[in-house]
Write a structure and sequence with these properties.
The protein is an all-alpha fold. 70% of the residues lie in helices and 0% in strands. Helix 5 packs antiparallel against helix 9.
């Protein structure tokens, strides 16, 4: 096993609180080949699975971009274990998830791994002093996906979203840099906004392929709907009314999160603003599809991404 982290734990491999607040990000030049290889693989994972996210990351400085690829890979690998349709026995998926968590914990503790992707992930966690508790919170939500297929109310869903998305916002904030710790609650909120958009876009895929419904039962009931209606893909006026209410709430969460972007280091603000408009733009595409998310995944095309990014450049976020 290669003990990679102690070998690179030199003065400029760590970031102090003051340096992080100023947004000072150091080059990865001193990283050994194992980590360099891992960062390339993390980039490939991000490009394959996160099209809108990957597009937005191109507006980050190189070092920030590389670190965020590692965070994305950290989240994507266990997520793929949980969602892998080829694993027909849930116990097998659960065992793989436990195994991945144990391997990650050991690498975090000892700095030893021969896996380039894991080496890159642990390097970034240490370099930017991302608390292991934030990683554990994410993994807790992955375990929740193995145990829970629906949510009674928004409060329950928010508990899941803290791990699945909120802590990712916290990690990205540590990497980008911030002017005040007050940025963190806004980053968490922005993670919720992105996650809610994903939930609305992926209603069909989540229910049909994964057997999960992230729409709160009490909010479905308020529109005279049940989880069975989602499972049967029933599209009617009641469902349209439900979707309108969900989109309105999602847009409000985006609005609440927006002030935090100004607290990020200036070099990272544009990329986050572009992520903001791209994900929020999906809500408009759902509306243009007359709220019928059962027809297939709604997405923005490359031309729309360019247009939304141009709007963000000139300060238009609606």
């Amino acid at each position: 096993m290669r003990n990679f982290y102690p070998n690179i734990r030199v003065e400029n491999a760590r970031v102090s609180d003051k340096q992080r607040e100023r947004g000072e990000i150091y080059e990865f030049d001193r990283a050994p080949p194992l980590i360099t290889e891992g960062l390339k693989k993390c980039k490939a994972i991000t490009k394959k699975y996160g099209t809108s996210f990957f597009f937005a990351t191109q507006f980050f400085p190189k070092e920030t971009r590389l670190a965020i690829y590692a965070v994305y890979a950290f989240a994507r690998i266990p997520d793929e274990i949980v969602d892998d349709p080829s694993i027909t026995n849930p116990e097998n998926a659960l065992n793989l998830l436990h195994e991945w968590r144990a391997t990650w914990q050991k690498a975090m503790r000892t700095g030893e791994t021969d896996d380039p992707i894991l080496a890159a992930i642990v390097f970034v966690f240490h370099k930017y002093e991302i608390p292991i508790g934030e990683g554990e919170a994410f993994l807790k939500s992955m375990f929740m996906d193995m145990e829970k297929s629906c949510y009674e109310n928004y409060e329950e869903l928010e508990e899941y979203m803290y791990g699945s998305a909120g802590v990712i916002g916290l990690m990205v904030t540590r990497i980008v840099g911030f002017s005040s710790p007050a940025a963190f609650p806004y980053a968490e909120k922005l993670g919720y906004a992105f996650q809610l958009t994903n939930f609305l876009r992926d209603i069909q895929e989540d229910s049909q392929a994964l057997g999960r419904i992230y729409m709160p039962r009490n909010e479905l009931a308020a529109c005279d709907l049940k989880t069975q209606d989602i499972e049967k893909q029933i599209f009617n006026e009641r469902f349209v009314g439900f979707m309108k209410a969900q989109i309105a709430r999602n847009r409000e969460v985006y609005k609440e999160a927006f002030p935090g972007i100004a607290m990020l280091h200036w070099r990272g603000r544009l990329a986050v603003k572009i992520s903001y408009v791209l994900y929020k733009g999906i809500l408009g595409e759902i509306e243009r599809a007359d709220y019928n998310v059962y027809k297939g995944r709604v997405r923005t095309n490359f031309t729309q991404k360019l247009w939304l990014s141009a709007k963000a450049l000139v300060g238009v976020y609606e």
